[in-house]
């Protein structure tokens, strides 16, 4: 099938983009970023936006900035930009590792980091990363900008706190201390598929004990989130198999898993148990 007819707008600045978006959003106008989610949906006529605000010609949105405290990722930065570390230290290594799990190479050359956040697929790797690392999203509208913490950004399956007339201009990731250990693990049946469950964990060692512990779970619930019950079990403990298993069990017990045509809630709960334990082992390896 072919998409329903639409008008494509090509702004050159963020101000121009949000002005157009404010005018066309009430007529189901949408932002077009990498098009790797929106275009297939349009081709199947599951979405029939009358207007597309194509942001690909806005040069200001194509940048990654590092001010020493925060890594800012502009709305036109592609998944493939992270194939090589974009910043020294554990965050650059983590971003490169996670990027390799997103879809397939051609999709990664077009799809964007911020597009993934705005699209908010429950299994999106970047959404999991944003939730676990307490990212801040910067939304622009005709009246200015507003910052949205990750815990307030994701609202449900493919649903966010962005208003229909707002452009997600950038995502900000706090730079972790250099001694942070990260672990990531996702399960899918075929390489490149969306994860059926995924976990991202982080901790530092203070006197041999885990500190600043993070356990994020994605793909299991309508949106990714940190699991406090697992984090508190790990905090202050030396890393090891017993405590990793206990944290994984706590995470499995804390989630309310989605069901779909191929996965029961209990199966997904088992997956959460497995991916959290394996992510913790990855961090410790
Ligand atoms: C075969 C296949 C496999 C895939 N596998 C994975 C996977 O394993 N993991 C994964 O995370 N993704 C996967 N994807 C999706 C891919 O990562 C997309 O690139 C991503 O979801 C959306 O980014 P985009 O830039 O392409 O956004 P688009 O498709 O352009 O837009 C998606 C939605 O977000 C909105 N939007 C985009 N950017 C903005 C913005 N800056 N401000 C406001 N709204 C915005 C659009 O209006 C639209 O509603 C897959 C896609 C395909 C086709």
What does this structure look like?
It is a single chain. A 5-stranded antiparallel sheet has the order 4-5-10-6-7. A 4-stranded antiparallel sheet has the order 11-12-13-14, sandwiched between helices. The chain is built from 10 helices and 14 strands. It has helices spanning 14-24, 38-43, 90-99, 105-110, 113-119, 125-132, 150-153, 228-234, 241-254, 265-284; strands at residues 7-9, 29-32, 51-54, 64-66, 70-74, 136-141, 144-149, 154-156, 159-160, 167-174, 181-187, 197-206, 209-218, 225-226. The chain has 285 residues and is of the alpha+beta class. The structure holds flavin-adenine dinucleotide. Flavin-adenine dinucleotide binds next to strand 2, helix 2, helix 5, helix 6 and strand 10.
